């Protein structure tokens, strides 16, 4: 202490002799002046040795994505896209700088081992025990190994890399997969002995996998990525911020991704998917994974009532976020630019266009959005349904010689509401068509009635549907030379696919195509005649 006071006294004496300084000031101001000057000098000189503030922890990330697995496995579509999405999120809101991020897209086991070795060498030189590391992998997997371009890498090597890294906290996220047909399956291949990574085996480390050891993880064409990675990324952008403090903790991110993944796969062909979580972080408190409040662009959904929202980039049409917003406003970190916001309402989607400024924020709300959210909340749980009436021209193939096609009018009544698992669209169709024979002059009028049901999938303003339909076809033939009019009633069966585009709140356009057969009567008996038709209609939601 005497050394510090001595320094202060000398400096004070020098300051006292500066021009304009009053050395003979009143005694009662002497002590205050001395400590004020001493404080100013210490601020200029900086902190004393040993009093320097500790360097803030740095964050490191190794991101791996590979679409191609073993030769017997179907190529994935979105594993590399998921890896790029996670890199963007970590750099935008996870405070991971590009300089401390290594990305590996399209690599076999040898290249991944080389990348791990390079990253390990760099961490040994630059990392500190206060830093933390995130390792994200999206690829095929099975029997405890990653499947990378025809090669295998045991997951244990990733765990060993994480354990040996000279950082305080290590986080491993595995979104590994094998594929299906319509909904591609992503997940750990079921094995006789489940692969487990217990907390006691990972001191100071966290492991999150997209599914359980005996479950599949799944990709979604609608989300253009895996369910788990999509929901985790959206959660890190702010949807998981339950405390509304502008930061997303590890617990908040996992809870959000788990709940949303479970909901998304509840009735999927791949079965229910439950992400798993193992950790040993005792005594460390909350681990902050992202800070959306620090993002360059921020979008606030300022609607109190819960609701399901779609956030789409206006220019590319890409789905940025599909989220289930809870009570109160929710802020998402997004890149500056133009966006379309869609909220499911009574008559379809209620849409708003917004522009997020550079280094700024925008808030979207208002009475129409609030009412739409409350209407959706009142209907949540499947109690409500939507009824759509559509009408438009149609063209169908003929079932008799000399009449290749018939044109007419198609009227549809479509109900969107779950009947049972996997069937959430049903409809009644009535079509009237007429045509004239080319070889023999006659006129044919058809009246077609059919019932159908099947699933549907939504992507923003678009709805894709499929259905199995059955019904009856009434055929009237008249103006036949030297013959009386004829009448026939034949059964028919069809497979139908449709695309619907919501134009306004209640108005939409529908394109429908069907293929199947009609059991038509012939002189020699009954025969199955192929049948195809297409319709372009305008729909109105009742």
TrEMBL record:
The keyword Hydrolase belongs to this UniProt entry's keyword annotation: yes
UniProt GO MF annotations: cysteine-type endopeptidase activity
UniProt xrefs under InterPro entries: Caspase-like_dom_sf (IPR029030), Pept_C14_caspase (IPR011600)
Keyword Protease found: yes
Pfam families associated with the record: Peptidase_C14
Ranges in a coiled coil: none
Residue span(s) of domain Peptidase C14 caspase: 58-254
An example Gene Ontology biological process: proteolysis
Keywords of this entry: Hydrolase, Protease
Name of protein: ICE-like protease
Organism, as annotated: Corallococcus coralloides (strain ATCC 25202 / DSM 2259 / NBRC 100086 / M2) (Myxococcus coralloides)
Organism phylogeny: Bacteria, Pseudomonadati, Myxococcota, Myxococcia, Myxococcales
């Amino acid at each position: 202490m005497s050394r510090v006071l001595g320094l202060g006294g000398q400096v004070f004496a020098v300051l006292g002799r500066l021009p304009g300084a009053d050395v003979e000031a009143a005694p009662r101001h002497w002590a205050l002046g001395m400590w004020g000057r001493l404080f100013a000098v210490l601020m200029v000189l900086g902190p004393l040795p040993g009093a320097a503030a500790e360097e803030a922890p740095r964050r490191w990330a190794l991101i791996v994505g590979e679409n191609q697995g073993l030769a017997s496995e179907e190529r994935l579509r979105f594993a590399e896209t998921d890896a790029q999405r996670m890199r963007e999120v970590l750099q935008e809101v996870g405070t991971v700088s590009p300089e401390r991020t290594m990305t590996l897209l399209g690599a076999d086991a040898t290249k991944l081992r080389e990348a791990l070795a390079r990253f390990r060498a760099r961490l040994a030189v630059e990392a500190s025990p206060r830093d933390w590391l995130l390792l994200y992998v999206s690829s095929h997997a099975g029997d405890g190994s990653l499947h990378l371009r025809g090669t295998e890498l045991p997951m244990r090597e990733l765990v060993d890399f994480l354990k040996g890294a000279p950082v305080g906290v290590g986080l491993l996220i595995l979104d590994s997969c094998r594929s299906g047909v319509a909904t591609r399956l992503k997940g750990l291949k079921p094995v006789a002995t489940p692969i487990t990574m217990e907390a006691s085996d990972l001191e100071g480390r966290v492991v999150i996998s997209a599914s359980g050891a005996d479950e599949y993880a799944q990709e979604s064409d609608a989300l253009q990525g895996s369910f788990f990675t999509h929901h985790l990324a959206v959660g890190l952008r702010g949807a998981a911020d339950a405390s509304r403090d502008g930061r997303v903790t590890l617990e908040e991110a996992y809870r959000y991704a788990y709940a949303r993944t479970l909901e998304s796969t509840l009735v999927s062909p791949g079965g229910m998917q439950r992400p798993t979580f193992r950790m040993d972080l005792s005594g460390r408190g909350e681990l902050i994974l992202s800070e959306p409040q620090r993002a360059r662009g921020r979008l606030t959904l300022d609607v109190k009532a819960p609701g399901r929202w779609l956030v789409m980039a206006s220019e590319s049409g890409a789905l940025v976020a599909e989220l289930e917003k809870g009570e109160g406003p929710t802020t998402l970190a997004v890149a500056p630019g133009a966006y379309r916001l869609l909220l499911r309402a009574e008559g379809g989607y209620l849409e708003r266009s917004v522009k997020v400024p550079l280094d700024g924020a925008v808030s979207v709300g208002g009475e129409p959005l609030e009412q739409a959210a409350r209407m959706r909340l009142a209907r949540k749980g499947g109690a409500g349904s939507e009824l759509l009436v559509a009408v438009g021209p149609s063209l169908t193939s003929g079932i008799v010689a000399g009449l290749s096609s018939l044109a007419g009018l198609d009227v549809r009544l479509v109900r969107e509401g779950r009947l049972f698992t996997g069937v959430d669209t049903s409809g009644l169709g009535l079509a009237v068509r007429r045509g004239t024979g080319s070889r023999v002059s006659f006129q044919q009028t058809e009246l077609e009635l059919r019932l159908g049901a099947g699933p549907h999938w939504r992507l923003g303003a678009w709805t894709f549907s499929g259905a199995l339909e059955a019904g009856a076809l009434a055929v009237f033939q008249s103006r036949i030379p030297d013959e009386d009019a004829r009448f026939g009633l034949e059964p028919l069966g069809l497979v139908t696919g449709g695309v619907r585009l919501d134009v306004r709140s209640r108005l939409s356009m529908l394109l429908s195509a069907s293929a199947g057969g009609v059991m038509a009567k012939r002189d020699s008996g009954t025969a199955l005649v192929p049948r195809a038709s297409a319709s372009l209609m305008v729909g109105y939601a009742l």
